[in-house]
Amino acid sequence: MPENYFGNLIQAIFTVTAVGLLTAHPPQFGASLVQKAIEAHDAKAIDERNKEWESAPKIFQFKDAGVNCVAVGSSPRFKVYDIDFGWGKPENVRSGTNNKFDGMIYLYPGKSGGRSIDVELTLEPEAMGRLEQDKDFLLEA
To answer: How many helices (H) and strands (E) does the chain have?
Structure first.
């Protein structure tokens, strides 16, 4: 990017699998798919995507990702609990109202530190209700 660039530059990257494969394997299976997609998004891939965009500009919207999409946002590099705008450090961190759709997940470094993770999850009301009643999920969370 040019030195005088100001703003956000976001490129969505994707990986695909079947739900049966996710449920038949340990969580590391899904995590490895995401990790491979991240590793493949190197400087060359970014330059190619920039050239594609410059030839046919389009503002990406998460709905463009298709149905049954789970999107993950944020980064462990964002030290969200270390920020103080003069009111003290945050008690909680949330993404706001942007990009809210069924299946959107934001991950933040956990407030308790170490390797903890805070998770913000957006689901349709019916799915959220079922999740809130799932005793196995609540034991893990």
So the answer is: 5, 3
Question: Which secondary-structure segment (H or E) carries 121?
Answer: strand 117-122
- Asked if 141 contacts 108 with a C-beta cutoff of 8 angstroms, the reply is no
CA distance linking residue 69 with residue 100, whole number of Å = 12
φ and ψ at 79, to 5 degrees?
Answer: -80, 70
31 closest CA partner among 40, 20, 22: 22
pTM as predicted: 0.66
Tokens of 98: 């942007």
Biggest CA–CA distance in the chain, Å, is 51
Which residues in the chain land under pLDDT 70?
1, 62-63, 140-141
For residue 57, what are the CA distances in angstroms to 41, 51, 127? 20, 10, 35
Question: Per the structure block, which two tokens stand in for 94?
Answer: 């949330």
Q: 53 with 69: CB under 8 angstroms?
A: no
The H or E element spanning position 108 is strand 104-109
What the block records as the tokens of 7 is 């703003």
